[in-house]
Amino acid sequence: MRLYEDKINFLEQIYKELNNQRISPEEERKISFHRSRLKSNLANADYEFKKTKLYLLDLIGLELNTELTLKGELKVIAEELNLDKCLAWAYQYRPELKQIQVEEEIDTLSVNLALAERYPTLSLGVNYLFVGSIFPYPEKNWSATVGISLPLFDGWAGWSRIRQSQTHLEQNKLKRVEWEDQINLEIRQVYGDNIFWQKELENWAKEEKEEEKFFELQKTKWVTREIKLE
């Protein structure tokens, strides 16, 4: 934005100087065209800056009417990322996969419980009774019970519960594979975008420096009247 403002101010200065001189309509048209184009670029840059500022304020949790003052120079530090490590971190920390893993554990327990219902159940009981009003009690009584339950037939309800739990488990396994594929795709896309934009930012920084040098050179030549605006 600063570069656009400097160019516009420079063209305004040229325009004022040329107004005091007789210039051809063609030269006046060129000056007007350059000035309009730079003003349009400045307006676009200002619009993008305001939109990005709102996004930043919302991202960091500040009021949207907070005034920001930018100081210093924004530098992008290139960082080498390892794709395999990024994939491993995503598989480990993505909440979608964690939720599916918990559901798989619950379904596995449900299958085991449903399978356990097919086996006989053995129960033991012991009672020990003291009767009397004087301690130690003169009369004592005890009993022991043993019970066994055989699941002979329950109307196929047990097999249905087992099949239902196994189906849920298989569905969650398929869902986990789908999420792993989706995460793999997202990480690879972001990894490629990161490499692309790092190179683009480097190119933009070089172009901006070259444009500033060219602009300063043109200003110097104009002041010394070595060139005319083209």
What does this protein structure show overall?
The protein is elongated. The protein is built from five helices and two strands, in the order H-H-H-H-E-E-H. Helix 4 packs antiparallel against helix 5. It has a domain at 1-72. The protein has 230 residues and is mainly α. The model is unreliable at 226-230 (pLDDT under 50).
> Biggest sheet, strands in spatial order?
1-2
Which bin fits the share of residues in helices?
55-70%
**Unreliable residue stretches:** 226-230
Cα Rg: 40 Å
Structural class: mainly alpha
Describe the main β-sheet briefly.
Answer: 2 strands, antiparallel
Summarize the structure.
This protein is mostly helical and 230 residues long.
Strand and helix layout:
Blueprint (H helix, E strand, L loop, with lengths): L1 H18 L5 H36 L22 H11 L1 H22 L4 E11 L7 E11 L7 H67 L7
Antiparallel strand pairs: 1-2
